[in-house]
Amino acid sequence: MEKTIEWVREKNVSRMVEQTLLPYEYKKVDIDTCSSMYNAIKTMIVRGAPAIGIAGAHGVNLKAVELKRQRVDIATFKGELTDACDYLISSRPTAVNLMWTVEQQRKIVKNGTSVDEIVEKLIDNSIKLEDEDIKINKKIGYYGAEIVPRGATILTHCNAGALATVGWGTALGVVRSAFEKDKTIKVFADETRPRGQGARITTFELVRDGIPTTLITDGMCSYFMSKRMIDVVITGADRIAANGDSANKIGTCTLAIAAKYYKVPFYIAAPKSTIDMSIKTGAEIPIELRNEEEVTIVNGKRICAEGVNVINPGFDVTPNELITGIITEEGILAPDKLSTIF
Ligand code: MRU
Question: Are residues 75 and 186 part of one domain?
């Protein structure tokens, strides 16, 4: 399976799909320094919780390779890599996957005894994480396909597909696995303002796979639910608290509220690494605030009055009572039963 982000050993670079160009151009770029990785995450060249987790691990590799070239001593090497870990984690605050992978790399740095050994171990670990991500997504797809009724129309939000992961996807992994079994399923994709991940990326992925897809704007969800045109909602997540409250792209909670009203099952599909057992509830999840221009400017043109106030949170938190189940690689869990897999 194609990896949408991967470490290239021969060149010591991170190769990834340049997601801001989609759907016009499907192009891969090589990221070759730690600071350009920070920018790639921040500007969303790479995005989606599991994908930025891998990008963070690669960012540590890049710094390690750079320091090895400079022939610094082991104390400087460890000190600078520790700073690089903090720097990379600060690029986006909501998705816990970024912290999860960078903390693994930090531990390798801490426990290592020589520069060469640490560089090798960091690279090996990041490649292991890439391979595991695809395997995990396949399992999520396998379990998730069970809850998709025959001929169902699935509503999804944002992009939790191959491009948000290393391959296959979480919510779209469920869609793909369900479609392998039943060619009559269909997808409704929310546009996902302001960055348009649903319109630009999810429709790109699904149309390319031949899965029938209808694009709707974010405000249309309850209309289609009221018409009984949506059978199940499945989204990804960026961080899930111990009680099952789930942060995902802004607008997800609106879907969950409408789904509850119209009695449409609402599922989150996410790997175990997205569950943050260190926080009790969603109130503790840091929500990224992004710049105003994402809201006020479309295709280079201002779309609103000068002087208007704008707030642009990137994520919202869906309370656990609105979630029917959380689809993980270890099975489908009720939101209040997450502790059973830890
Ligand atoms: O801001 P983004 O595009 O990184 O947000 C992505 C999402 O909200 C996804 O649904 C989430 O990361 C899960 S991806 C498998």
Answer: no
Find the radius of gyration of the CA atoms of the chain.
20
Q: How far is the CA of 317 from the centre of ligand 1 (A)?
A: 13
Question: Residues 300, 313: contact at Cβ < 8 Å?
Answer: no
Residues 7 and 14: beta-carbon distance below 8 Å: yes
Among candidate residues 107, 137, 167, the one where a domain is terminated: 137
User: Are 120 and 156 contained in the same domain?
Assistant: no
Ligand 1 atom closest to residue 248's alpha carbon, by position in its atom list = 8
**CA pair distance 254, 157, nearest whole angstrom:** 11
Q: Is 95 left (phi over 0), alpha (psi -120 to 50) or beta?
A: beta
Determine the angle formed by the axes of helices 49-69 and 115-145, rounding to 10 degrees: 170
pTM, to two decimals: 0.97
Q: Which residues line ligand 1 (CB under 6 A)?
A: 47-50, 95, 158, 160, 164-165, 170, 197, 235-238, 248-249, 314
Q: Cα(38) to centroid of ligand 1, in Å?
A: 17
Candidates 190, 238, 276, 316; catalytic one: 238
What would the pLDDT profile of 228-275 be if each residue is shown by its tens digit? 999 999 999 999 999 999 999 999 999 999 999 999 999 999 999 999
Residues 25, 48: one domain? yes
Task: Reply yes or no on whether 238 is catalytic.
Answer: yes
Range of the domain at 209: 143-341
How distant, in Å, are the alpha carbons of 40, 246, 324 from that of 43? 5, 23, 33
- Residue 73: which CATH number? 1.20.120.420
Q: Both 255 and 288 in a single domain?
A: yes
Strands (E), 149-198: 153-156, 186-190
254 in the same domain as 131: no
Task: Please give the distance, rounded to the nearest whole angstrom, from the Cα atom of residue 94 to the centre of ligand 1.
Answer: 10
